[in-house]
Design a protein that fits this description.
It is found in: Cytoplasm. By secondary structure, the protein is α/β, with parallel strands linked by helices. The protein has ten helices and twelve strands. The chain has a ten-stranded mixed beta sheet with strand order 5-4-3-6-7-12-11-10-8-9, with helices on both faces.
Amino acid sequence: MPVNIPRDLPARATLEGEGIFVMSDERARSQDIRPMRIAILNLMPTKEATETQLLRVLGGTPLQVEVSLLHMASHSSRNTPPEHLEAFYATFADVADQYFDGMIVTGAPIERLEFEDVDYWPEMAQILDWSREHVYSTIHICWGAQAALYRHYGVPKYELPQKLSGVFDHRVRRPESPLLRGFDDVLVAPQSRHTDVHAADIEATGAVDVLAIGDDSGVLLAATPDLRQVFITGHPEYDRDTLGREYQRDAEAGMDPALPANYYPEDDPSREPALTWRSHGVLLYANWLNHCVYQRVPFE
């Protein structure tokens, strides 16, 4: 939340120069406050786990958030009970005439498919196009980020020789970005994907900035300069055991997966992983809600 200080306080210029958001009494008195309307387009098969992860990081601020959960009408979920979808989810048709302050588009385990081969790609493309007019700021995660970069800017994805899985360090390249306020030089985040997008392709669009990148994991965070479109290739929202559960699932399926990098102590799957990225995930989403949504979106 912003720091409310007198306009002429000497510390004001210093704080503003450091990117700290400060507010005068005049502006504070004129502010109207209402709940932020956030839509979550949940493409993950384990919808209930993803709901919990995202709501946990969204709850890291004092802002009141009103969440609408969406699922694809053109795809039948095999892993989520129909009763759950009926009780808690809407489809795009239900909200197409509405406006949202923010939206989160999750990933999906379909990275190896060409975008046009995904059974719900026509609906996905329609939603991505709609979001540019009906949503003030949208976060796209993992496959959702790749899909949006491809749809909006023609950025291709590339299949990796083996799955990128683990917890990685990412260098903050744009510390002045409101998304990265309060971050140290290194941002820790889990990655879990079979495909990659290249920094050079993103920067060649001339419309998207790379904000954080890892030596071993590539681009983590990118955004348009106006912060209306945010792209996260990894999973700052993951729980402690999410990578482990994915590893066990792949192993049981006979996929012979590599151990998630930098995850198990001494690479021993019998030991509990340390949760080293939660603070970064909470801060990233708090910055998004505050600086990209709350402080910028019109009251109406």
